[in-house]
Amino acid sequence: MAQIGQTVTLKCFCGEDSVTFFSWYQQSLGRKPEIISSRMRHNKEAAIYPSFKGRFEVESKETINHLTIADLLLSDSATYYCGILEFNSLEFGEGTFLYVTMPLSNIQGVVYQPALDPVRPGDSVQLSCEAHGEKCKGEQSLYWFRQTKGEPVIMYQNEGNCVDEAHNRKCTLTYSIKSVNSSDEGMYYCALASCGKLVFGNGTQVQLTNQTDPSCDMIERVQEENLQYAALRNQKANKSRRKRETNEKECVYSSVAH
């Protein structure tokens, strides 16, 4: 996350000798990826494509391909991918989502997201969001983002239901997940893109609970108690049998001694 006017550097390392080509791509919300730069591995300078010249620069060395963006704009909010060419195969990293914000005093939008209690595997959940943005010309878009550990941000566009109010526009949207499993866990963010601005909610955590079914727990306890009772009865029976056998042996020994 960065603010308008700042400078950020997105880093990309690759030390494999088989890599012959580096590139950077930008994918803005709801659009196809656009190529920013490209270079052969041993070239000292990267070629910056026309629409990105001026504020975008690439630090080019043998094993690094860092992208620097100066004087950030709201339109720079996007996912950036570092690409390599290895054995004639073009491969990409997980991607870095850059979220450019405005100072709080200039933001004309608010996004609310209610919290969600932990859910059990197999349950269905519905995430909800309410967004308020200023009226302006151009499109207003709504999105869901999912962030999980070790994975890139995954985006879902959502039209939502919007109504015009006195001075702004109110939109509500939902996202349903059926039969939740561990692959659905993560933080889900609702976002409103309006008037050249992108406003995020505080996020809703989808987390599975580890609680077991009480009825199953009761059955297990009953089974455990039955096993303990059976073991105790067996132990008492064995003690009684051993005592009886011991008495018989003692009696026989005594009779022989006489």
Automatic annotation (TrEMBL):
Q: Does the keyword Signal apply?
A: yes
Q: Sorted alphabetically, which SUPFAM superfamilies does this protein's record hold? A: Immunoglobulin
Q: Which compartments does it reside in?
A: Cell membrane
Highest rank taxon of the organism: Eukaryota
One Pfam family hit: V-set
Q: Which UniProt keywords apply?
A: Cell membrane, Disulfide bond, Glycoprotein, Immunity, Membrane, Signal
Location (main, coarse): membrane
Q: Does the keyword Glycoprotein apply?
A: yes
Q: What is this protein identified as?
A: Ig-like domain-containing protein
Source organism per entry reads: Takifugu flavidus
